[in-house]
């Protein structure tokens, strides 16, 4: 196994080589903390989103989805306090000029060179832009730093167009932007990234219970998709790091090769957002409890995950280098089949005898449901290896026996075991293995 620090390098290089992730605008030298997803990366990311959506929205009758814009009325950010508070405190080293976020520092000298720091400065991390043709103060707008506000400002719309009653959730997946002052660690910290967030509205007084529920439900989600349990931990935010709107917050952390890092934050936002938006707009953003004939501002539990950090976690956790009895190494990504970018590779053993035609028919059959890949070049062993490195769970080989009995060889990525499956049963066989995980049963 490679040393811990090399694993990040290996992953970055694998991502580039196989088309998972590329540096942004690479031909211009890249752009710090911006990244692009390639063909395999976007297939993986779509599956991450889908796995999340399945678990949090589709399979629950009290959570619905929305998709709201990246740029919102700038008054939203005045009301929430982001326009003045969504900031990091930074210092620069006076010797080596490296910049640090104060909340990431342990001592009061530069960890890089031991130098002295400048006075701490506050730095607003929301990106600003102008809307309309005139670039003056009245035209300033922001790129959202979280998707959450899209759910809060639509609270009333959703309530009026659904029959939801407390407790219920509104969920969304979408891009967020932060002008991060410390960068690095590949796609872990980006300036443009994707969030998967739920605002779960509940009766005040039940918020602690729902917080405990979501913390465990979300931890179970990562485990269900194969993340190793010993690599996950829960950590409560200290007062110094707690967001200004939260009563408390717990992070689900993963042990990345560069140390423990936040994967998802589950915070109790109380009624802060609804109450403030209601005051600022004069709109009634309460829930009317028919039985008690009472208006309540619901409390909000917010599980906020990052699609990119989840993807990085699944990649790192799936990455293995197997060494066989002969000393040959194979790089294999042991993705959960539902997450794997390509579900099956269809491989004619040779390029003649009608085998490619049969293989292409299988491709057409399976493509109705999944991303599959046709490959006829090189030895069968090499073709399997290429797929192992992409994390493809099944290799389907069309050989001479296929012509006699209409069966194919299915080779399993992890065990490398092989079995024969009738072509007519392939779709059912795949469907049995490639399923989203259901919700955990929690008390
Ligand atoms: P950090 O302390 O690492 O800056 P945060 O506490 O500011 O993160 P939250 O505001 O809780 O993060 O955002 C919720 C989730 O969104 C995070 O758990 C993470 O998965 C994702 N996320 C936040 N910032 C970034 C970023 N710059 N790049 C990638 N993902 C991010």
Description:
- By secondary structure, the chain is an alpha+beta fold.
- The protein has 13 helices and 23 strands.
- β22 and β23 (418-422) form a beta hairpin.
- It has helices at residues 4-18, 39-58, 75-80, 82-85, 148-153, 155-161, 207-224, 272-281, 307-318, 355-367, 380-390, 400-405, 426-433; strands at 21-23, 35-37, 63-65, 87-92, 99-101, 121-124, 128-130, 140-142, 168-177, 192-202, 232-236, 248-256, 259-270, 287-289, 294-296, 299-306, 319-323, 329-333, 344-348, 372-374, 394-398, 407-412, 418-422.
- It has 3 domains: 4-80 and 130-315, 2-Layer Sandwich (BirA Bifunctional Protein, domain 2); 87-124, no CATH class; 342-433, Rossmann fold (3-Layer(aba) Sandwich).
- The strands form 7 sheets. Strands 3-9-10-16-13-12-11 form a 7-stranded mixed sheet.
- α2 (39-58) packs across α9 (307-318).
- The chain is 31% helix and 28% strand.
- The mean pLDDT is 94.
- Adenosine-5'-triphosphate is lined by residues 178, 180, 189-190, 193, 195, 262-265, 304-306, 308-309.
CATH class descriptor of the largest domain:
Alpha Beta
CATH topology of the largest domain, by name, is BirA Bifunctional Protein, domain 2
Give the integer mean of the pLDDT values. Answer: 94
**Beta strands, count:** 23
SS class: alpha+beta
Give the neighbour order of strands across the main sheet.
3-9-10-16-13-12-11
The number of distinct helices, counting runs of at least 4 residues, comes to 13
Q: Could you name the CATH homologous superfamily of the largest domain?
A: Bira Bifunctional Protein, Domain 2
Helical fraction equals 25-40%
β-strand percent reads 25-35%
The total tally of domains equals 3
Low-confidence stretches: none
Global shape:
globular
> Termini separation (Å)?
40 Å
């Amino acid at each position: 196994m490679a040393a811990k620090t090399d694993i990040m390098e290996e992953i970055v290089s694998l991502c580039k080589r196989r088309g998972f992730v590329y540096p942004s605008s690479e031909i211009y030298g890249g752009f710090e903390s911006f990244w692009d997803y390639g063909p395999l990366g976007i297939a993986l990311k779509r599956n991450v989103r889908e796995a999340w959506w399945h678990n949090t929205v589709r399979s629950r009758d009290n959570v619905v989805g929305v998709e709201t814009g990246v740029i919102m009325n700038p008054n939203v950010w005045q009301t929430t306090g982001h326009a003045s508070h969504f900031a990091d405190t930074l210092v620069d080293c006076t010797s080596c000029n490296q910049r640090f976020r104060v909340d990431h520092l342990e001592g009061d000298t530069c960890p890089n060179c031991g130098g002295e720091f400048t006075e701490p400065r506050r730095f607003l991390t929301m990106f600003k832009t102008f809307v309309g043709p005139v670039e003056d103060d009245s035209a300033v707008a922001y790129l959202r730093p979280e998707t959450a506000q899209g759910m809060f400002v639509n609270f009333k719309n959703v309530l009026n167009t659904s029959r939801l009653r407390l407790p219920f959730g509104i969920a969304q997946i979408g891009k967020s932007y932060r002008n991060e002052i410390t960068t690095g660690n590949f796609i872990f910290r980006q300036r443009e990234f994707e969030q998967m967030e739920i605002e779960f509205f509940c009766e005040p007084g039940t918020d602690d219970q729902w917080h405990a529920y979501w913390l465990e439900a979300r931890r179970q989600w990562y485990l269900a998709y194969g993340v190793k349990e010993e690599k996950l931990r829960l950590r409560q935010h200290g007062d110094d790091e707690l967001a200004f709107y939260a009563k408390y917050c717990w992070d689900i952390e993963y042990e990345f090769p560069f140390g423990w890092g936040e994967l998802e934050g589950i915070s109790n936002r109380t009624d802060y957002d609804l109450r403030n938006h209601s005051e600022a707009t004069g709109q009634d953003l309460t829930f009317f409890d028919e039985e008690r004939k009472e208006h309540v501002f619901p409390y909000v539990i917010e599980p906020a995950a990052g699609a990119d950090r989840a993807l990085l976690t699944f990649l790192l956790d799936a990455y293995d280098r197997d060494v066989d009895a002969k000393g040959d190494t194979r790089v294999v990504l042991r993705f959960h089949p539902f997450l794997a970018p390509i579900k099956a590779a269809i491989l004619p053993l040779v390029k003649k005898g009608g085998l490619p035609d049969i293989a292409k028919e299988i491709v057409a059959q399976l493509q109705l449901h999944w991303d599959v890949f046709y490959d006829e070049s090189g030895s069968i062993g090499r073709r399997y290896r290429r797929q192992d490195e992409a994390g493809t769970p099944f290799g389907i080989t069309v050989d001479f026996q296929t012509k006699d009995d209409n069966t194919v060889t299915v080779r399993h990525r992890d065990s490398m075991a092989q079995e024969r499956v009738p072509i007519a049963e392939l779709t059912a066989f795949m469907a049995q293995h490639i399923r989203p995980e259901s919700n955990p049963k929690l008390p």
